[in-house]
Amino acid sequence: MIKPILLTLLYLTLTLDVNARQKHFINSGTIEFERTANMFALVKKKVTKNTQDIKPYYERYLTSEPQFRKLKSTLFFNSSKSLYVPVPPERGLWHYYDTPMANQLNTVFSDFRGGNSVVQKEFYERTYLVKDQMRKIKWKITEEKRVIAGFRCRRANGLMLDSIYVVAFYTDEIHIPGGPESFNGLPGMILGVSVPHENVTWFATKVTEAPVIEAQLAVPVKGKVVNNKQLFEEIWKAVANYGDYAMVMVKGLLL
Questions:
Q1: What is the pLDDT of residues 7-44, one digit of tens each?
Q2: What is the pTM of this model?
């Protein structure tokens, strides 16, 4: 009986070894993302006890505009860094409907080896160049899995900026700890993100394996140079007079 058992174990070991050798890992390429914002929920947040004059515009939005706003972006990456670039939208939002969470404000350069990032952030005719450490997110990996853009992904639940709950799906077939915007820190590339309480998601629609030249990973250089603490102070000064809606704006601008 011992000999058949040993043969079975040997067979399983060889099979696992062959599968491991056959598994292909991507370390350079581009990822196309689609960001979806639930505008019904976002515009509703603009209606507060201090901004009841916005309510008629919110009600008009419900009957005249689509519920979801979809925006495109591209992530260029290699084994040591990435550059996330938003694609300009085909049309903007009327100011009564406009809200930071509905827009793509960031061009994000990430240096995985150094643990640093440079974020070019644009809002309300202001441009900042945020130079600091890569964002820290507290992750807890789960057993839930799904397929995104043809890649097997695993779910992780996270907490960022102290109080924002985030769900991410990453693949270890792209063994790089990056993702869209400033999402990072998992043992593989993040291909899907949901921030449920902020009504926005990012999901990869296409992954292309290809060499990425240095020009595609150029560090942003435009804007007033600040760190994360200074950015928060600048944002708070800009939105402090928005009453109950100020914190909603802060989350959208910091995300």
A1: 444 444 444 444 444 578 899 999 999 999 999 999 99
A2: 0.88
Amino acid at position 185, single letter: G
- CA dihedral of residues 101, 106, 247, 137 (deg, nearest 10): 100
CB burial of residue 17 (10 Å; 0-12, 13-18, 19+): exposed
In the chain, domain spans: 25-135+203-254
Percent of the chain whose pLDDT exceeds 70: 91
The larger pLDDT score, comparing residue 240 to residue 134, is at 134
Please name the residue that has the structure tokens 């040993």.
6
Q: Please provide the DSSP assignment of 139-177 as one string.
A: EEEEEEEEEETTEEEEEEEEEETTTEEEEEEEETTS--S
Residues contacting residue 23 through CB under 8 Å, at least 6 positions apart: 173
Q: In what order do the strands lie in the sheet with 106-111?
A: 138-148, 151-160, 164-171, 189-195, 200-209, 29-38, 68-77, 81-86, 106-111, 116-123, 126-133, 224-226
Write down the pLDDT at residue 53: 85
Q: How far apart are CA 199 and CA 41, in angstroms?
A: 7
